[in-house]
Write a structure and sequence with these properties.
This protein is an alpha/beta fold. The chain is built from eleven helices and 13 strands. Helix 9 runs parallel beside helix 11.
Length: 344
């Protein structure tokens, strides 16, 4: 058997040397990378330093759907790994393309945060209480499709407005009166300590999150066996099974991460505690996993929304199969015609 090839530019690190963690520069990315760094320090006893890397998605002012979405926040971090500039990297898992490079391995998917989307609105308003013609900002076609569909079915009159920018920028649109509300991920606000600014939590029955939303991905080079083993201690098997099923659905739909696809794999006995942010529920009772998926047009006029339930996947292949099976049903119902961006 041939020796695994050393990625270009990579040199062996001394045992006990500082571990370099690659991260995006945003406040949220730095916060979640800091949490991972603390955990890795505890596990390995080694110092961990954050190496800030600017990605194309950080510098481009275009909307994600226009610049492709898939991988725009990830490529620079992966290049840094392969060059040996960093030892491991932390991503928001929903930003990862579904195809995994051979030279890199997803060493850990830690326990998931609250996967829901939330509203930050003026005057502490709930979504259903927004005034007629309310302008709601979001950069995600997935959110637009589901919010508009919900509004149509409940007699609400809203306008979804494409926005980009960090949490401060987006909430700033509301504070300035330019928008009535913005939609954000609960997990991100939790991680930067701003969950108290949320005025409404959107139930997953109203808006399914992005595949992998609320989860982190810790990645390193495939030849670094010691680091893979250490990082593997941070892996949560239930979270990994869930996000693998969700991403399998996304891949089988041939959709990228900016396509209007929502997906959530959860375990019904734990769903309510998870949404309350209580991660202490007894996982021994978990026997089945439910996978829900949705694809829709941005104006919400057409949605394909289906679900399936099966035994909790015990292997990667079983989780992949769960996603592919639901995707096949959705495609049979016309999902392919509802997606603007297709993966290549």
């Amino acid at each position: 058997m041939s020796e695994p090839r050393e990625p270009k530019g990579r040199a062996p690190r001394e045992e006990g040397a500082v571990l370099r963690l690659g991260t995006r520069r945003s406040k949220l990315a730095m916060a979640q990378s800091g949490l991972v760094a603390d955990a890795v320090r505890r596990i390995t006893g080694r110092p961990v330093e954050l190496v800030e890397i600017t990605t194309y998605g950080d510098v481009s002012r275009e909307h994600l759907a226009q610049i492709g979405g898939t991988g725009v926040f990830v490529t620079a971090l992966r290049d840094a790994l392969l060059r040996g500039q960093v030892d491991f990297a932390v991503h928001s898992l929903k930003d990862l393309p579904t195809a995994q490079p051979e030279d890199l391995v997803l060493a850990a998917v830690p326990e998931r945060e609250d996967p829901r989307d939330v509203i930050v609105a003026r005057d502490a308003l709930k979504f259903a209480d927004l005034p007629r013609g309310a302008r709601i900002g979001t950069g995600a076609p997935r959110r637009m499709a589901q919010l508009n569909a919900f509004a149509r079915s409940h007699g609400l009159d809203i306008e979804t407005v494409p926005v980009r920018g960090n949490v401060d920028t987006r909430i700033g649109y509301v504070r300035s009166g330019e928008l009535d509300a913005v939609v954000l991920a609960a997990a991100g606000l939790n991680r930067i300590g701003r969950i108290d600014e949320v005025t409404d939590f959107l139930p997953v029955d109203t808006v399914l999150p992005a595949p992998g939303q609320g989860a982190l991905a810790i990645e390193c080079t495939a030849d670094n066996a010691d680091l893979i083993a250490a990082l593997g201690q941070l892996d949560d098997p239930l979270t990994r099974a869930a996000v693998t099923a969700e991403r399998s659905l996304l891949a089988a739909l041939e959709a990228g991460c900016s396509a209007p696809v929502g997906a959530l794999a959860d375990v019904p006995p734990l769903s309510a505690p998870l949404e309350r942010g209580d991660h202490r529920a007894d996982r021994q009772i978990v026997k089945e996993m439910r996978l829900r998926g949705v694809v829709g047009t941005a104006d919400g006029s057409t949605l394909v929304q289906l679900s399936t339930t099966g035994p909790v996947p015990e292997t990667h292949d079983q989780a992949m199969a769960l996603g592919r099976e639901l995707a096949a049903e959705m495609l049979a119902k016309g999902a392919a015609g509802l997606m603007g961006e297709r993966a290549h």
